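Chapter review: from sequence to fold.
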Amino acid sequence: MKRIVFTLLVMASCLAGHAQESSADSTQQQKKVSRLSVGGYGEANFTRNFFSDHVSRYSQPEAHKDDPSHGRFDIPHAVIYLGYDFGKGWSFGTEIEFEHGGAGIAYEKEDEEGGEWEQETEKGGEVELEQFWLQKSFAPWANIRVGHIVVPVGLNNAHHEPLSYFTVYRPEGENTIMPSTWHQTGASLWGRFKDFRYEAQFLAGLNADQFTNVGWIHKGHKSPMEFDVANKYGVALRIDNYSVAGLRIGLSGYYGHSIGNTYPNDANGAGATYKGKVAIGSVDFTYDAHNWIVRGQADYGYLGNAGELKYMYNRLNSKSPYKHSAFVSSNAYAIGIEAGYNIFSQIQPLRQKGERLYLFGRYEAYNPYASKTNGVSYDYTEVKRMVVGFNYRPIRQIVIKGEYSKRFLKSLYNDEPSVNIGVAYEGFFL
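The token string follows.
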């Protein structure tokens, strides 16, 4: 009897062990063949600006020199990634972004107005479908992507996640003169071969009616319609090189027509006379080695027929959803460089834990109105900015940021110092 019991116990133990091994193998197999990916990133920031927020702070700078400081909390971006691998080279990707906490509109009953129902905006912000594409991969060097895609012109658009820059907010220069993150509907051909990665895109054109004196083409990719107008088209190209260990160097550019890319299409209007050529060239780099991270970029842009934009029909029509005042510059530029050193690399216990603390500095100069269109000047758009701060990364996916920054404007205007604190995450959950 004892032998029988002992034999049964051994058999049961072996079966249990085999079941555990099978379960582990099944889990590993499931991980290997898992086709769904879920991830995202998000930021929460606090800012105290030690300068005036009055609407006439540039037109009457002396009157607002001693205005009180102002603060704000903000959630600049909260993003959800969803992707799926269908197999046989077919995959899908999407990115849903909530900017500044999203938007809210509600109906309210106003008792002080006789019980009327009114629709009110509850909060500002945006909810955008930033990416939505279907991709066919033939080889690492040949992939075709169609749908709503990111336009990787400049350092900020190609690497816009919060762990890709030291500052609390995205670098100001590129974020001012170009869309950020720039995303449009179109088609992309991309791939990587040896030490090079390339991407070429065909896109709907920008809308010149959305260009401004303080933001150049920043809002040109947006459409107030339920669709992206595509009377005109644009192309974008990016090439990155990884030949040197720890160093990536990128070249990118954009070309397209923007005047006449509006609804309804007036074939005999301004679009038939003017083109509104937009040409952008950019060079950028990232160096990450020997406990240093250094990033930099230089962007220059040209806009044809800039002097005619102010007098376009949609700008003169006060009921249209487009910009109605101010000239737009024919040129814009943005340069910037930042460098940070991981001081925890010199402290062995913290280095072994994988914690990192970067002390960094940044300098940038930009101007969305770099040329005086029709002799009109907006000198307050010329900005130089310096930043010093830290990035503490307790784990790979989390960063806590703090900085002191100051914008230096022309002597006629007041400089703009501020203190910014932020926390951000970035990663894949599945």
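Two observations follow directly from the output. The CA atoms of residues 217 and 356 lie 37 Å apart. The first strand starts at residue 36 and ends at 49.
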